[in-house]
Design goal:
2 domains; six-stranded mixed sheet; five-stranded mixed sheet
């Protein structure tokens, strides 16, 4: 199997929710060969922040919305998450490893020195700005694997708990107007959603099932009246909305596959999300009030988060990862290679039958959906043994070799880029021969 990993193209998508039954058009923002991820747009939609891989992890950049005129910012490190723009668009808050393991820093959007705003020994991640442009909510890890949320003033450097009376592990966000905080708490294996006032007082429990969580940025609706969350009460993830004033929660998605990483549109009318339904990972949208779920992308590329709406437009952005992999046979006498699996499938691992006559392999459909197929090692039609199975072992690129009556596996690593570019062999690790 040869693996070609392609990562990081940011794609823009127009016409979401237009009522057209066809798929919206997509346009790649990143140039060929780029590896961009974790994009976030400025409040006016004219600039975009993103990360690129570097030796120490990832590097933060800002560019125009069309990815032109990039500026390198003073934030980098092994941990990344979407940089969050200040309300006036002049600064970004991000996680950075330049001062410690992972601290919250504020950097000017036009470039300049980073200001470290957290000093904790663990890992700190920013969650959201308050509308005053001074306070930042962040979550910090602590000894024993626990975590809690805090609020820090950029000007004074003073930090305090987001919900002062909460002793359980918690992580939360301020509402758009700063009048409330929404947060999750963990107790044993259960997590529930709560809301409190701006100072973290008068907490109220909004959900009780114990399978709820937040993902992909702020869960607050743009008007601050509802909270979007994921629930696994059915065994797989679905999206729900709960009003903070009280009342029943509203279920938005109901598929048997996972629907995750929901984000509100700027006008609050739509929720975009990733789903692994349809035997692949795609982007979908659903009316925030409830209604028909609509597929936005339909291809074998794996769409990645974060999903990010561009303010002032009807456009949605995301990253994609493309992996091309197949099972190959190599004749040691002639060094001739022969591909066994068709180009239309992506494989992750295989094994050869004891008699050396057949090979079975895993077909990756995306979103954790996999098939198992078998075919003659000499070549020929394949048969599907298992369809739509769960997660399996994902291996490196491998090539089946026969040496007399013994079969060997050669592992190879390759990397490449979405949209073109020459495949290259990575320098490490070296090829390995493993007996099967």
């Amino acid at each position: 199997m040869r693996l070609l990993a392609c990562v990081g193209a940011v794609v823009i998508l127009g016409g979401c929710g237009s009522g057209d039954s066809g798929l919206p058009s997509t346009t790649a923002l990143s140039p060929d060969g780029a590896r961009h991820s974790m994009q976030s747009f400025s409040p006016d939609g004219k600039r975009v922040a993103y990360w690129t891989p570097v030796a120490e992890g990832s590097q933060l950049w800002v560019a125009n919305a069309d990815m032109s005129a990039p500026v390198k910012l003073s934030a980098s490190g092994p941990f990344v998450g979407p940089a969050i723009w200040s309300p006036d668009g002049s600064r970004l808050v991000a996680v950075s490893g330049q001062f410690g393991l992972a601290d919250v820093v504020v950097v000017p959007a036009t470039g300049g020195e980073a200001q470290r705003v957290t000093m904790d020994p663990g890992i700190e991640f920013p969650m959201a700005w308050y509308p005053d442009g001074d306070r930042i909510a962040y979550t910090a890890t602590a000894a024993g694997g626990t975590f809690s949320s805090f609020v820090v003033s950029v000007q004074s450097g003073v930090s305090k708990p987001l919900v002062p009376g909460e002793k359980r592990p918690n992580s939360g966000y301020p509402s758009p107007d700063g009048s409330h905080v929404g947060y999750i708490t963990g107790e044993g294996s259960t997590t529930t959603i709560w809301v409190a006032d701006s100072a973290g007082g008068n907490p109220r429990q909004l959900t009780t099932e114990g399978f709820e969580t937040f993902f992909s940025g702020t869960p607050w609706s743009p008007d601050g009246k509802e909270i979007l969350y994921e629930s696994r009460r059915t065994g797989t993830a679905d999206l729900w909305v709960v009003p903070i004033a009280g009342g029943a929660a509203r279920q938005l998605t109901r598929d048997v596959r996972n629907d995750r990483f929901g984000v509100w549109s700027p006008d609050g009318k739509w929720v975009a999300f990733r789903s692994d339904r349809g035997r692949q990972t795609d982007v979908w949208v659903v009316p925030a009030a409830g209604g028909e779920e609509r597929r936005i992308t339909d291809n074998t590329d794996e769409e990645q988060g974060p999903l990010s709406w561009r303010p002032g437009t009807n456009e949605l952005t995301f990253s994609t990862i493309t992996q091309a992999a197949g099972v190959w046979a190599l004749d040691l006498a002639s060094s001739a290679e022969r591909k066994l699996t068709p180009d239309s499938v992506r494989t992750s691992w295989f094994s050869v039958s004891p008699d050396g006559e057949q090979v079975n392999y895993v077909i990756e459909r995306g979103g954790g959906v996999q098939d198992i197929a078998v075919m003659p090692l000499a070549g020929g039609p394949s048969r599907t043994l298992v369809s739509g199975g769960g997660a399996g072992v994902v291996g490196d690129a491998v090539v089946a070799r026969r040496l007399e009556d013994r079969v060997f596996v050669q592992r190879r690593r390759y990397s490449g880029y979405l949209g073109g570019g020459r495949r290259r062999r990575c320098a490490t690790p070296a090829d390995q021969l493993v007996g099967v």
